[in-house]
Amino acid sequence: MPGLIQSVERATAVLHLLATRPEPVALSEIASALGLAKTTTHGLVRTLVAVGAVEQTADTAGYYLADDPLGARKDRWDVNEIRSRAMNWTDALAARTGMATQISVLRGREVRIVHDVLAAHGGGLVLRTGKSVPAHATAHGRIHLAFDVHLARELVAAGLPAVTHRTITDGADLARELATVRDSGWACGRGDLEADVATLAAPIRDQGGSVMAAVGLSGEIDEVCTRSGAPRPALLENLISAARSISRSMGHGQLQ
């Protein structure tokens, strides 16, 4: 059939094969069963392991389907590693922009700040390392929710409590906002968590492209946004550059 992508077909065939086997399967057996060269099979399996769909036995002799191959991988990432790799970039981002900067991870239905740098003038989001807030009530959270559809639906079903009068509390409004975040690659919150504070956030991705964390900057609304409410271009450019740099340090774009 024209238009099919061969590598996707082959990767799907590997997943189907492993799903039918109760025990780990050796690389040579996968190659033989699918009629592929061993080197080709090795590349496919390595990629599937990197993105979390397949796991490898401790002795590296066999491969098996992950418990939740299409699920969120947030619990597999080492927060300390994320923080240590991101620290230099967030410190530099704060210095370049004069804004407070943060790194966040998703924990349950909340966003937890794992690293923050105060603005030079002391303003910015009143979130400090270790504090958690509802995921729907901040730009950081909407970065995470935009790429975790199941969790977004859970939050809507459970209700979206207001933190300020600008917090998104309607499920349809949240869905539209998350679609915009997916399209643009960044999120902006204006007074939704702290009445006078705006926050910009962008995703940090792992080697396979999954969103593992978010980096953000915050300050007074008129410092972060223009009169029309749009993010100031220089701040957004610096934020996205930092997010890409941190992602590269986590292996994003380096699959072989």
Task: Explain the overall architecture.
The protein has nine helices and eight strands. The model has no long low-confidence stretch (mean pLDDT 87). It is elongated, with a radius of gyration of 21 Å. Helix 2 (27-34) packs across helix 3 (38-50) and helix 4 packs antiparallel against helix 9 (233-249). It has helices at 6-19, 27-34, 38-50, 79-97, 139-146, 149-158, 171-184, 221-224, 233-249, and strands at residues 54-56, 63-65, 100-107, 110-117, 132-134, 187-190, 197-205, 211-220. The chain is an alpha+beta fold and 256 residues long. Helices cover 42% and strands 19% of the residues. A hairpin with a 5-residue loop joins strand 7 (197-205) and strand 8.
How is the topology of this model organized?
Elements: H1 6-19, H2 27-34, H3 38-50, E1 54-56, E2 63-65, H4 79-97, E3 100-107, E4 110-117, E5 132-134, H5 139-146, H6 149-158, H7 171-184, E6 187-190, E7 197-205, E8 211-220, H8 221-224, H9 233-249
Number of helices: 9
The N- to C-terminal Cα distance equals: 27 Å
Rg, Cα atoms, Å: 21 Å
Order of helices and strands: HHHEEHEEEHHHEEEHH
Order of strands across the widest beta sheet?
Answer: 5-4-3-8-7-6
| Biggest sheet overview | 6 strands, antiparallel
How many strands? 8
Range of strand content: 15-25%
Spans of at least 5 consecutive residues with low confidence: none
Q: Structural class of the helix and strand makeup?
A: alpha+beta
- Overall mean pLDDT: 87
Oligomer class: single chain
Helix content: 40-55%
Shape type = elongated
